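Interim report, section 4.2 (structural modelling).
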Amino acid sequence: MRIGDVAERAGVSTRALRYYEEQGLLPAERTSSGQRVYDEAAVERVQLIQQLYAAGLASRLIVDLLPCVDAGVASDEAMALLTRERDRITDSIAELEKARAQLDRVIEISLNPDAEHCPALRTGAERPLERVGATS
Amino acid sequence: MRIGDVAERAGVSTRALRYYEEQGLLPAERTSSGQRVYDEAAVERVQLIQQLYAAGLASRLIVDLLPCVDAGVASDEAMALLTRERDRITDSIAELEKARAQLDRVIEISLNPDAEHCPALRTGAERPLERVGATS
DNA sequence: CTTGCCCTTGACGTCAACGTGAGGTTCTAG
DNA sequence: CTAGAACCTCACGTTGACGTCAAGGGCAAG
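Predicted structure of the assembly:
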């Protein structure tokens, strides 16, 4: 496969693939004329890289960790990295869930503007219902 | 409160607070000499901003959404934004969980190198207690 | 009054993951 | 054989959320 094929199948730009190679994330064979040649596994690898990027891992870190992911084995140092990043991801998920809850709260109140958790509707009014949930 | 107090209590830099004001995220009163003055709610607001940042919302978007969060009411356009971002966050969480699963897999295999999901240990040998590499 | 800390407004620096030409080469279809 | 699509290597531009340095102003204590 050439770079355009991989790009299309993995859903990234050719520029990204060249960047990955530059960073040592995605080695490529070359034809005699210098064009990059990839095997089928490249597509999957690109998707893995994207996943780790999305998880907030810097490319430098991915460079260190990809061999472990490939081999399924990690040195002590790599293990420390792995667990640290795993925990960081867990924390990130918690943060995202909190943020989503904030948005959900606004969505919910806005769709349901009769509730008492809406201070904008309670300015000087009495409570139309009994308590629904926890106090704010 | 002055800017340094808010920064310390919210766990951000004073530079960040000035940046938030510049972006219209965190208005501040001024003393006659021009120094910024914040009320108690500023700390909580900063933490909310940080949460939305962590969730991947751009500051421009937060500027649009904060009034809704404050008022608990959203226009149709804002509702579209809210639900779109909520869904995007949900997708992000799923991506993070996939990435974490990848790391967990490596951690698990590396801690438990006798399993059959480890291709590096099955390349022509069945030596579960032998270490990989350095075939001396 | 001076010391010292906190504050002010610029304005340039940073870092990552690419985007975007420029200018040239190679592959493929007709 | 020729056009044009796809590829190559530089190399500078972009974006966001600040960091950081510079040059000065404000204010309570000693």
